[in-house]
Amino acid sequence: DFGNSRNFILRALARMERKVYASAESAVPDILIKLVADADIVEKRKPGETSPEKLRMKIVGIKGLQFNPPVRVVTVDASKPLNEVLFLIRREIWNIL
């Protein structure tokens, strides 16, 4: 833990980091949009960036993310055409404004 370091710079950085995490915990988003697509579709869109197995693990992780109210969680099928995905996202955002 750098908060107990003898180096004053490391202690200062540790304090700053604690403040950032504390403020992030208290700031709750109004909406969280999960973009989910099959691994093979993601691979076709960004070939070679991530192994298919890692993509599948990420997708499972994203689908499994849960948030407590009042956060509104919306899952959008990102395998749909871009204009449809954007329409769905915009509609959800407008619904909370």
What would your notes on this structure say?
The chain is an alpha+beta fold and 97 residues long. 56% of the residues lie in helices and 12% in strands. The chain contains 4 helices and 2 strands, in the order H-E-H-H-E-H. Helix 2 (39-45) packs across helix 3.
Briefly characterize the structure.
This protein is α+β, with helices and mostly antiparallel strands and 97 residues long. The protein is built from 4 helices and 2 strands.
What is the number of beta strands?
Answer: 2
Structural class designation: alpha+beta
The proportion of strand residues reads 5-15%
Outline type: flat
Unreliable segments of 5+ consecutive residues: none
Radius of gyration: 19 Å
Q: On the 0-100 scale, what is the average pLDDT? A: 89
Roughly how many Å apart are the termini? Answer: 42 Å
Describe the sheet with the most strands: 2 strands, parallel
The ordered string of helix (H) and strand (E) elements is HEHHEH
Helix content: 55-70%
Counting DSSP H or I runs of 4 or more residues, the number of helices is 4
Map the helices and strands.
Blueprint lengths: L7 H19 L4 E6 L2 H7 L6 H13 L7 E6 L4 H15 L1
Parallel strand pairs: 1-2
Salient structural properties:
97 residues, alpha+beta, two-stranded parallel sheet
